[in-house]
Amino acid sequence: MMFLTMFQFTYHGSAGVVAIAAIVFLILFVGMLGLAGYACFYRVHFGNYVSKPDRINFEQRRVMKVIPWYSFSRASSKEAAEDKVFAGSFPFWQVSPVDEEAAKPVTEDEDYIKKFGWLAARFRRTRWWFFAVWLVYEFIRACFYAGASGHPITQVFGLLVVEIVAFVAIIVMRPFEGQRLNAIVVYLLGFSKVATVALSAAFDVRFNLPRILTTVLGIVIIVIQGVLTIVLLIAIVAGAVTSWMSVMRNRSREEFRPKKWANLRDRYFKHLNQAATDLPPPPPPVVVPEEPKDPYFSVNSVRRMAKIEDEDRDDDEETPFDEKPERGLEDDSTTPAGAAY
Length: 341
What we know:
52% of the residues lie in helices and 10% in strands. By secondary structure, it is mostly helical. It has a three-stranded antiparallel sheet with strand order 2-1-3. Helix 1 packs antiparallel against helix 2 (15-46), helix 2 (15-46) packs antiparallel against helix 3 (110-120) and helix 2 (15-46) packs antiparallel against helix 4 (130-147). The longest helix is centred in the last third of the chain and has 37 residues, at 211-247. The relative contact order is 0.06. Residues 1-264 form the TRP C-terminal domain. Residues 275-341 are annotated as: Disordered.
């Protein structure tokens, strides 16, 4: 609606049409931003939250110990260390509860859910405020789509910068509680918007690309949108299955149909309970091997077998080497017939 109203301003028209567009623009602009601001204020004010000054640091690091890279970190975070190298910082703020232990998460605050659950229901416990960020993001996109509609270069490259910044920021925040929403909205849809805008920039007549190349770029855009559509259809089917499980959550395993999905439903509910806490999964338990209660073997008797050295030693004691006659050296006259050695 913001896009349509602002496009009407750039498109011009009769005074009555522009007046209706201006009224709709003011209602949506003031109404939506006012609701989002009041939802954040209500949570901070009545949820015993306090705003503190903070800073965002640019941390220098290396990817694979070779490629230089930069990452963002809060000065108040537990991961911040004094031995890290920072390229710079800018002021920011931090909203945190007065009492960490007594503070209720959004998922357990029934009063807030009744009033603003339609805004914060799909987001993580620590990203409940993301609806305000998303509203500003959509408003900026509407400004470029509608306000810069007569200037294609400004429109395309401005949108490209906005989409890249939003893509990186949303990946870092990963705001949605469900894995399907994170996969579709954050990764697939974000990549689709960046790739589509970047490839569409080449269609401007100023670049004078050949027709074959523009046809290939168009096919690539169609393939990207087609993959996104297929994944979206799969997610719709999966959402229908999980919704059926949620509707039948109060039925026992014997009453649930189809019975083949009973184990799948139990795993799904376990995953939901873990995702609602917005905490990393617990580490796997350390399995300590038990010591054997009894020995692995027992020795009942010992028997020593004769070795080759023992046989040689016995022969040496009975007949010394120098006393043994050598075979073939005796005279036949002194040797009895048929004697054997």
